[in-house]
Amino acid sequence: MKKFVVLLFVMILLFSFSVTGQATDINSDNYRFIVISDTRPSFTGAPFSPAYMKILEEINWINPDFVIHTGDLIFGYGESGEILRDDYGRALELLSMVNPKIYYVPGNHDYQSPEAADYFAQLSGYKDGYYSFDAHGATFIILNTDIPGQLGQITGEQREWLEKTLLNAKDSKAIFVFMHRPVFSFLLPDEDQRGDIPESDCNFISKKAKNDFLDLLTKYPITAVIAGHEHLFYYTEYKGIPFYTIGGGGATFSTSPEKGGFFHYLIVNVHNDNISYKIMEPYHFSVDTKVITENGVSRGEALIHNIDGELQSGLIQLNGIKFTLPKGDYTVKIEPAVTTEQLVKVREATGLLKESTSLGTFSQLLKLFEPTFFKVEPHPQNDQVVSVSVGVNALGSLPIRVTVQPKDSSE
What's the predicted TM-score (pTM) here? Predict the structure, then answer.
């Protein structure tokens, strides 16, 4: 019984961790990005899926270093120039609300006519729709699988460019390749597809085109290849290279939920040499923020509820919790949004109340409740207020309350 009381006391302390000041700069070897795809509406003029808008909201809460959209922003097919302009305008109006930078991959719906391709070129800044960029010591390659006359293949000038880019990147810490049409299909047979299905629906136009591309990739240390096009989640490996299809951004599903037809996005976490991939479904966590003023003193509060798995296995790092507060110095406090009795039940149910009570175990747990990020900055438009950003580890199954309050009012 005594051991249980001591254990409970330490756990209560865990959740009352409070800090002031700034977080250190993120090491360039530690970063994360999010991949979304196939967010287009079902037909011209149709609304975007509410799940897509929820994904965009969650991206802001997660606040990754950047986002990559692997194609199909708009419906596109058969639309006039005026409608294309309006469709791109609607899509970009939504995406303009996303705080991190977005890199765009051309999809078949985005690139199916010269006019559509022109709009995409203006959006991406690259005339032919393929390009690369370097960040955090890694190389990120964007391919265009929808060049007119070259649909479903990487050939001609693009292939020459790709081979040169891969050669220059061979010493990068990682090489990520992004494209719209996947190399490996969940839906279509692995054979020459020309004539069997509409060209717009195929992935790689022939087995020869597919094998030629794979032969090139396997000459280099590719970290992962990530695509969309099929509206589902699919994963496979080829000669040690992971291939992901991330097509659940909002368009009508291509298959049933148990076969991968569900809304999702991909979080890629890079920590030094360790890379992890997390498939995230929207609506699995929520963040409710508000500013409360009592007796002339204002504070910010956020209630975070994450149901994406168990305590540690479901952990999601949220670095985009934001408040606008009166000018001043602030401290942040993270604590459970449950009673002590509820906390004990959660611990029992999740197996954390075990005999192992070593200091090392508690030290590791304690770090999960430190703010991952805390910054107080001048507001860009109002010098009477400040912008406060907080990062927190949102543990699975446990509601957490984040409080930002003036230093002189903190306990």
Answer: 0.88
